[in-house]
Amino acid sequence: MRRGLIVMVLTISMLLTGCEGSLFVEMDTSIDNSAGSGDFIISLSGTGEVNEALQRGDFSDYFTRIEDVGFFVRQYKEGESAFIEIRGSFESLEELNALQAELLAPLKLAPFIRQETRPGLFSARHIYDVTFRTDSQEIESIPAWASWEDAGVGSEQPATFLTYRLSTPGTILSSNALSVEKGAATWTLSDWQMRSGVSLGVLSEQLYYGRIAAAGLVLVSLAYMAYRWLFI
Description:
Elements: H1 2-16, E1 23-31, E2 38-46, H2 49-56, H3 60-68, E3 72-78, E4 81-90, H4 93-103, E5 110-119, E6 123-133, E7 160-167, E8 171-175, E9 179-181, E10 184-190, H5 191-195, E11 199-207, H6 209-231
Helix pairs in contact: 1-3
């Protein structure tokens, strides 16, 4: 799996080297449960020469390699814009972090997700923290969320933009995302903002419906017993 992904990203990187225009990366990551398994979609598009390179590149051999290890890949056009899309699944956050690092190797940056769970009697709260790391960075404890708007924007218009969408189990209670819709938090970042130490944060709450139902049944039973004892 890893070999196919590395070949793919290196090929794309070579085609885009020296191109004028902007590269747009969209990542849609859905974490289904507290164990950290889920699905992801990554889409690449661009403007100017970046769009032309994505449009004329022949990736068929590399697509076959990636599909052989369980990923869905396609190259398509919408109007004048070309896209490369990769879909797959992961069994843990460790596996997801490794996949993101490989798929975004041309950027020399990758989102790194950490999770902290605070269990309760009838619900659990999950903190998801996303930072952008290079291979040389060490794992740190979950930091306080930083507002990337406070970091400022460089004077040069960046060539790369990332739209990062994260869906988490349960209901999102708070986030520093630009928008939260249908259980997904979404950020749009330039490469400069990713390198500035930005932290993307989500706090979600997952209810234990089985425990809630059991507690409700116990309360109903106690109320019925009290009624019979007092009035019957």
